[in-house]
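Tokens as discussed.
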């Protein structure tokens, strides 16, 4: 009966009105010199253009989504300055319709056949993810506990799962992993679920990771935004607390009170990188703050999952200067990158956030490192799929299993060091 009810809800969700992105184009742009890179940086400040990424390196391209009424002017500007570009998706709306249908079909198949609430063949909704955590707590009570860490602005439960080896020892060091600060980065949520699956359901193969460390995992930091990206606006990034009658949400990864608002964050409330009206204005960021501070002393490794770009990034995000202990972070990140390269051939770029990508103050990784005193704090940007943020369901398992290889190697390196 429960699965039947879930199926009815799933089918009903298909009928909800959505932003269809009809006629939106995705551009791939290669800046060949510093002038062109600076031009793209200036264009990224224009709210008409949604830059999916803006790498600092000249050998990495940028992807930009542009709505139909702005495409002619955008292309004219690029051509005026001789910037090379290609259109990699002529109608993003059509791609998203295919994605939505494919994902609904996979979720229905999982409801009919699976013993658990999630699989790694679909992107699951917030309620399904929470149900999976509760199932694990019921099935493995000596090793798993689930807590409602707090509520989102729209009153959704934000749950953490604590995973141990069941030996009853208290006061162990902790790995804290979260995902989904940015709503549209669905593969990050799936990556967190796969880590949970490996530590709990594949315990025999991974018990060494739990010998001297407990793991605390928060798989959906921003459930309001995540649900909104499923039901209404697929490319929604922020939280959902209203700022004005016209603008909703804050970029939660610009909202932490460490060099808040200094660089790489917008004061314009409709911007995708809006820093918030104050630091920690969002219940979701307050919750992460409280968890991080509660783990000060025990917390040795903070890992936050994002997408996309194949990056392993460490502090600082607010300045190009490096912290005195940057080599410890680099050593851990390099271990993850090397393990992934060896296993699958996929290359991850390693470095500080500002020097590899761009400056962005107010991030959770800087706060974990600079305030909560986690000695290792890393942002992992998972691979691109589709046109960037929208991997197909057939790519999920490959991406998350590859990600696990890197996370396991990094956790092993942290265990060696601490």
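Sequence:
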């Amino acid at each position: 009966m429960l699965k039947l009810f879930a199926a009815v809800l799933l089918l009903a969700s298909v009928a909800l009105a959505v932003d269809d992105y009809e006629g939106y184009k995705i551009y791939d742009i290669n800046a060949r010199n510093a002038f062109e890179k600076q031009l793209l940086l200036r264009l990224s400040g224009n709210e008409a253009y949604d830059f999916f990424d803006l790498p600092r390196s000249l050998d990495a391209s940028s992807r930009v989504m542009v709505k139909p009424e702005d495409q002619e002017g955008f292309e004219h500007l690029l051509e005026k300055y001789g910037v090379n570009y290609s259109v990699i998706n002529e109608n993003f709306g059509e791609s998203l319709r295919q994605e939505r249908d494919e994902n609904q079909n996979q979720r229905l198949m999982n409801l009919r056949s699976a013993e658990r609430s999630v699989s790694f063949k679909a992107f699951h909704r917030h309620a399904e993810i929470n149900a999976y955590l509760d199932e694990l707590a019921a099935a493995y009570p000596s090793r798993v506990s689930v807590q409602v860490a707090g509520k989102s602005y729209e009153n959704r439960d934000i749950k953490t799962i604590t995973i141990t080896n069941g030996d009853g020892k208290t006061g162990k060091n902790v790995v804290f992993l979260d995902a989904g600060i940015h709503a549209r980065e669905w593969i990050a949520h799936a990556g967190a679920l796969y880590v949970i699956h490996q530590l709990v359901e594949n315990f025999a193969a991974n018990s060494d990771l739990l010998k001297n460390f407990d793991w605390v995992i928060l798989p959906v930091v921003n459930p309001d935004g995540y649900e909104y990206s499923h039901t209404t606006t697929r490319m929604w990034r922020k939280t959902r607390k209203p700022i004005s009658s016209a603008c909703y949400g804050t970029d939660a990864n610009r909202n932490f009170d460490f060099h808040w608002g200094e660089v790489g964050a917008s004061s314009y409330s409709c911007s995708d990188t809006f820093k918030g009206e104050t630091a920690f204005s969002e219940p979701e960021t307050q919750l992460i703050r409280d968890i991080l501070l509660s783990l000060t002393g025990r917390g040795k490794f903070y890992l936050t999952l994002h997408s996309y770009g194949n990056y392993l990034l460490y502090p600082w995000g607010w300045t190009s200067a490096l912290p005195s202990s940057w080599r410890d972070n680099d050593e851990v990140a390099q271990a993850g990158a090397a393990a992934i390269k060896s296993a699958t051939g996929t290359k991850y770029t390693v470095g500080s956030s500002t020097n590899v990508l761009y400056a962005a103050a107010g991030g959770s990784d800087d706060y974990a490192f600079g305030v909560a005193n986690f000695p290792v704090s890393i942002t992992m940007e998972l691979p691109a799929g589709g046109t960037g943020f929208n991997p197909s369901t057939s790519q999920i398992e490959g991406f998350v299993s590859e990600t696990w290889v890197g996370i396991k190697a990094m956790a092993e390196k942290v265990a060696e060091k601490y």
